[in-house]
Amino acid sequence: MLEGFGQTKQELNKTITTLILGGLGFVAALAWNEAIQTLFSLFLPEESGLIGKFVYAIIVTLIVVAVSMRLRKVVGEEKEQRI
């Protein structure tokens, strides 16, 4: 019975760690969002309004897609090396 408790405790610790890291990642994402918006406001005039927001969203989306593809490739290479 106690051997199951040890495994449950380990799973709980992993879950709590994942939640904490997710929260910290969210805070970092909000900080980056504000920084990038400020940077874009330097290059796009205030009159750009909705178009400026779409340009910002498209550029950020392209960056996220590129980073995601690169991370998948790196993780895939690591998995292949383990096999």
In words, what does this structure look like?
The structure is a single chain. This protein is 92% helix and 0% strand. The protein folds into two domains: 1-43; 45-83. The longest helix is centred in the N-terminal third of the chain and has 42 residues, at 2-43. It is built from two helices and no strands. The protein has helices at residues 2-43, 49-82. It has 83 residues and is mostly helical.
In short:
With 83 residues, the protein is an all-alpha fold.
Protein topology:
Blueprint: H1 2-43, H2 49-82
Give a count of the beta strands, DSSP E runs of length 2 or more.
0
Instruction: Give the structural class.
Output: mainly alpha
Number of domains: 2
The proportion of residues forming helix, as a percent range, comes to over 70%
Which key terms come to mind for this protein?
83 residues; mainly alpha; 2 domains
